[in-house]
Amino acid sequence: MNAFSKLTLAIVMTAASTVAFAQDSHAGHGAHGAAHAGHEAPAAAELTDGEVKKIDKEAGKITLRHGEIRNLDMAAMTMVLRVKEASMLDQVKVGDKVKFAADRVNGAVTIVQMQKAQ
């Protein structure tokens, strides 16, 4: 075999082994994804305290002064957030104390659950 044939054979063998390794490493990915889903659910269910500062129904946004949002690693602050469903804005008014859960939806921090605080 000449040097070119040996080089070609080595490249083909390396590529084949890389594909086999990738397939093998993803074999348990379904179980891995299910395990992550279990870890994410409690974080999403954890409610954060907040106070309604402003409501913009046309834009589907609410301004909240809120505590730490742990699942997003976000410190306490006042910020504008999107709401998952516009009807959430009908449940509250400026000055209300709320408990909410937020997550990233299409890259934007979005309230996915909200209720008046008791």
TrEMBL record:
The keyword Signal applies. InterPro entries: CusF_Ec, CusF_sf. Residues 28-47 are annotated as: Disordered. It comes from the Bacteria. Residues 32-45 have a biased composition (Low complexity). Pfam families: CusF_Ec (PF11604). Keywords: Signal. Residues 1-22 form the signal peptide. The keyword Signal applies. This is Copper-binding protein.
